[in-house]
Amino acid sequence: MLVNATAMLQAAVKGHYGIAAFNTNDLEWTRSILTAAEELQSPVIIQCTRGAANWQQGFKVVKDIVEDLVDYMKITVPVAMHLDHGTYEDCFEAIDAGFTSIMYDGSHEPTFDINMERTAEIVKLCHSKGISVEAEVGGIGGVEDGVASNGELADPEECKAIADLGVDFLACGIGNIHGLYPEDWAGLSMDRLAEIKALTGDLPLVLHGGTGIPTAMVQEAITNGVAKINVNTDLQVVMAKATRAFIESGKDLEGKNYDPRKLLKPGFDAIVDRAKELIVDFGSDGKGWA
Question: Which of 217, 221, 249, 263 lies in disulfide reach of 226, CB 3.0 to 4.6 Å?
Fold first, then answer.
């Protein structure tokens, strides 16, 4: 059974560890994530953007894949099905599809007041259905499904205003970006994180753009209140690298290795291995029902 993400993230804040939120792109991707989480007995958030949902033929298909795999694989750890960077309209569609957790990304709305109004509406609806809610303040750099931002640092007062609406966890820009990080990246602003934390209390905070941030820096952010770390590009890169290596070695020409189950297996094995590394880095291994 899928759960919402509130309890696992509150436990993470108290236990000073982070929970990985891995984006999924298809059934095999989801299976790989679940395999890693189950082997390490870690709670996990599986999330999906609108673009990835369109690729998989809709939010309901994505939710059904995750739910059916949890059942078929006899997964024993908590698993949340989360909408990542949802627009206002996406939220209602994902709710109807059975997602157990929703991110309304109002950071790109024309005004902060619109972000506030729509976040309040989504919180009220989701909480009436037992669904957890993530909101966002301050743009995250890079591009995520067409939503771009310069990555400004979030305003702590705006973070408090959104937090006071009753959201369950909050994404806030602290210098992080989506995708691969440039060589001249300035790093995370721990000072801004501390300012936000001082005003939002025990509310779990979310670090978007987890790919490429030095492990020690992520762990410092976790110590300072980040409980959810989003990971997408990282798994895409290791999957592509392993698949390329298999093909460049010529193994795809041996026997029946053209079979996609064999051709793509090294890539999905790489996802399992990398997801396990990140789970350990974030400290959620062994915290299945903490």
Answer: 221
As given in the structure block, the two tokens for residue 239 are: 């999957």
Please identify which residue in the block is written with the tokens 């409980």: 227
Among the listed residues 210, 281, 251, 275, the one whose alpha carbon sits nearest the alpha carbon of residue 28: 275
Closest CA to 18 of 10, 28, 27: 10
Distance CA 40, CA 236 (A): 21
Domains of the chain plus CATH, in order, are 6-238+272-282 (3.20.20.70)
Question: Pick from 69, 63, 68, 70: which is nearest to 100 by CA?
Answer: 63
**pLDDT tens digits for range 140-172:** 554 444 444 444 689 999 999 999 999 999 999
Active site residue 64: no
Q: What is the DSSP letter of 176?
A: -
What is the residue whose two structure tokens read 């619109």? 114
Average pLDDT, the chain: 92
Residue tagged active-site, from 26, 68, 71, 84: 84
- Does the model's pTM come out above 0.90? yes
Q: Beta strands of the chain (E only): which ranges?
A: 19-23, 44-48, 79-86, 101-104, 132-137, 142-144, 147-149, 169-172, 205-207, 226-231
The answer to whether 66 touches 46, Cβ cutoff 8 Å, is yes
- Dmax (CA) of the chain: 62
Percent of the chain with pLDDT over 70: 91
Q: How far is CA 210 from CA 34, 215, 269, in A?
A: 19, 10, 20
Strands 142-144, 132-137: parallel, antiparallel or unpaired by DSSP? unpaired
Amino acid (1-letter code) at residue 37: A
